[in-house]
Prior knowledge:
alpha/beta, Collagenase (Catalytic Domain), five-stranded mixed beta sheet
Amino acid sequence: MVCPHAPQAAAPRLELRLAAVAALPDGAQAALQNEVQRLWQRAGIRVEWAETGRPDDAAVFRVLVVSRTMAAGDGAHTWPVAELLHDTEGRPVALASIDAAEKVLAVAHATEEPARMRHHRLGLVLGRAVAHEVGHRLLGTAHGALGLMRARIGAAEFADLRDGGFELDRVTAAAAVAAVPPSRPRIAALDRDPVLRR
């Protein structure tokens, strides 16, 4: 029996930074960030979004949202909304495309609804794609048969306001939790005086 007052192990923390946003409509950014947080919280990982003014830190996983279309899927992988890339210093970056997410909404026949709902749904699609790429960052390149790490997801499910198909199984979730790099303490002086590196 577990004592209800026994200290619980804190969920590992993964810090993400939304480093660039290209013309993301009102409401879509919050939906994107909330969806990534919610999906990974279910797996036992606490996602936090870093402040944009903080210095660049190699431990922070960057997310870039752009307007360009992604390359077509290679047959085994049909997630054209986002991809995992590496910058010139070899650090991983999740690149997500607004244009590709809009195409998912069009295929799912979700473009004829009020703008507020469409923008929320756009953020969900982008958030699910980014959450998938976070999974690749933690777990490697392999895809799963079910849940968030599937290679193939139909447009209607991808854009659905319900989210029943995006969980991680226990084994995959445990592997992701184990792969989260340990958090490093922040230096207060840097937080007070941010310096942006280009």
